[in-house]
Specification:
alpha/beta, Arc Repressor Mutant, subunit A, D-Maltodextrin-Binding Protein, domain 2, 3 domains, rod-shaped, DNA-binding transcription factor activity, DNA-binding, WH_DNA-bd_sf, LysR_HTH_N, Transcriptional regulator, LysR family
Length: 313
C-alpha cells in the first residue's frame, strides 16, 4: 500500500491540474516521471484512470472515484502537517528537560511554577540527572548541564559561568591553619569531586599574571557536589566549591573563604544542550529564555559575594 501513496498523490495533481505538464510544474518533477507514475498506478490497480488524447485528458469512472479519494488523502496529509506545525509554533504539548541534579533541585525546580503559570498549555517532564546523558536516546528536548563532557552532535548554548570559592570550616582552620598561597594546599586535606567520568583533583588559581594548577589530595572523594559541602562544614577539609551550592554558610560562618585575593579559574559553564535542528521549537526556546532570566547576570546566588569577588586580582 505504501508504494501506492506517491503515485496516487501524483495522479491527484494531474486530475486537479487537467494536464501532465501542469502537474509536473506544480510538483517540481519532470513530465516523464508524472506520466510513468500514472501509468504504473494504472498497471498496479488493473484499471484505466485517464483517457488520453493529443490535446486533452479526461477521467474514467475509476479515475473519478480515485481522484475524489486522492483529494481527501491530500487534505488529511495537509491537516496532519499543519497540526504538527501548529504544535511546533506554540508553547504547548510536552517539554522533556534533563537537569543536573544538585543545580536543578536548588535553583530550577523552585522557579518552575512561574514558568508554568506563563505557559498553562505546556506539560513539563523533568529528569534530575547525575549520570552522563544521551539526549536523543533519553528522549529529551533539552538538557541543562554543567558537565564537562557534552553529548556529541548537540548544540550547546552557554547560560552562565560558575564562580568558585575555596573554603573550610572554622574547626578545620583552628586545627590545621589556612593556606596563604595555592601551593600550600599540598599540605592540607583537600576534598575532591570524583565522578563517573571526571575527577576534579587539579585546582586552578590566578592572581595577576601568576597562574598555577595545584594537584591536590585528601582522604575524602565523593561523586556528589552537595556532599562535598557537607563534608567541609563538618570539618573534614578544604573544598573548591561552585558558588551555586552555597546558601548562607559564609554569612553564618560555618564556612570560611580562603585565598580570597586569588581567582579560582576552573571553567564550568551552565549550558543548554539540545539536538541540532533547523528550527528550535518555541517551547524549548521559551524555557531557555525563562531560565536565563531567572538566573540573572551575574547569577542571583553570587550577590552575597560581590565584595569577595572584587578582592580577586
Amino acid at each position: 500500500m505504501l508504494e501506492l501513496l506517491e503515485p496516487i498523490a501524483i495522479f491527484t495533481h494531474v486530475a486537479r491540474a487537467g494536464s501532465f505538464s501542469s502537474a509536473a510544474r506544480k510538483l517540481g518533477i519532470s513530465k516523464s516521471k508524472v506520466s510513468t507514475q500514472v501509468a504504473d498506478l494504472e498497471h498496479k490497480l488493473g484499471v484505466q484512470l485517464i483517457q488520453r488524447t493529443t490535446r486533452s485528458l479526461s477521467l474514467t469512472e475509476a479515475g473519478q472515484l480515485l481522484y475524489a479519494q486522492g483529494e481527501e488523502l491530500l487534505r488529511d496529509a495537509d491537516q496532519a502537517i499543519a497540526s504538527v506545525h501548529n504544535l511546533n509554533d506554540a508553547t504547548r504539548g510536552v517539554l522533556k528537560v534533563g537537569i543536573s541534579q544538585s543545580f536543578g533541585t536548588m535553583h530550577i525546580i523552585p522557579a518552575l511554577p512561574d514558568f508554568m503559570a506563563t505557559h498553562p498549555e505546556l506539560e513539563l517532564q523533568i529528569s534530575l540527572l547525575d549520570h552522563k546523558v544521551d539526549v536523543v536516546s533519553e528522549g529529551l528536548d533539552l538538557l541543562l548541564t554543567m558537565s564537562e563532557q557534552l553529548p556529541l552532535g548537540m548544540v550547546a548554548r552557554p547560560l552562565m559561568k560558575c564562580q568558585f570559592l575555596l573554603a573550610a570550616s572554622p574547626s578545620y582552620i583552628e586545627k590545621h591553619g589556612q593556606p596563604d598561597r595555592p601551593e600550600q594546599l599540598v599540605d592540607h586535606n583537600c576534598l575532591v569531586y570524583h565522578g563517573e567520568w571526571h575527577e576534579h583533583s587539579v585546582w586552578q588559581f590566578k592572581q595577576g599574571e601568576d597562574y598555577c594548577e595545584i594537584g591536590v589530595s585528601g582522604n575524602f572523594r565523593v561523586d556528589n557536589a552537595p556532599a562535598l559541602k557537607s563534608a567541609a562544614i563538618s570539618g573534614l577539609g578544604v573544598v573548591y566549591l561552585a558558588s551555586y551550592l552555597l546558601e548562607d554558610e559564609v554569612e553564618k560562618g560555618t564556612l570560611v573563604p580562603l585565598l580570597q585575593d586569588w581567582q579560582l579559574t576552573h571553567h564550568l559553564p551552565l549550558q543548554a544542550v539540545y539536538p541540532r535542528r533547523k528550527h528550535l521549537a518555541p517551547k524549548v526556546s521559551a524555557f531557555i529564555d525563562f531560565i536565563k532570566g531567572h538566573i540573572g547576570s551575574p547569577p542571583y546566588w553570587d550577590a552575597p559575594y560581590t565584595e569577595l569577588y572584587a578582592k580577586r586580582k
